Amino acid sequence: MIILEAKINNINKNYLLIQLQNNKTESVLRIFIRLAQMKKRIYKLNNKEIRLGENEAHIWNFDLNKYLNLIDKFKSILSREELIRAGKFYFNRDKYWFIINRGLLRNFVSIYTSIPAKEIKFVFNNFGKPSLAIDGNSTHLHFNLSHSKNFLSIGFIINSQIGIDIELMNLSKDHLRIAKRFFSNSEFDNLFSFPADKLRDGFYSCWTAKEAVIKLFGMGLSFSLKDFDVELKELKPDESYKYKVNLKKQSADLFIEVFKLSNAIYGACAVDNEKAEFIHCYFEDENAITDLFA
Question: I need a labelling partner for 20 at 20 to 30 A (CA). Which of 81, 177, 181, 193 fits?
Answer without folding.
Answer: 193
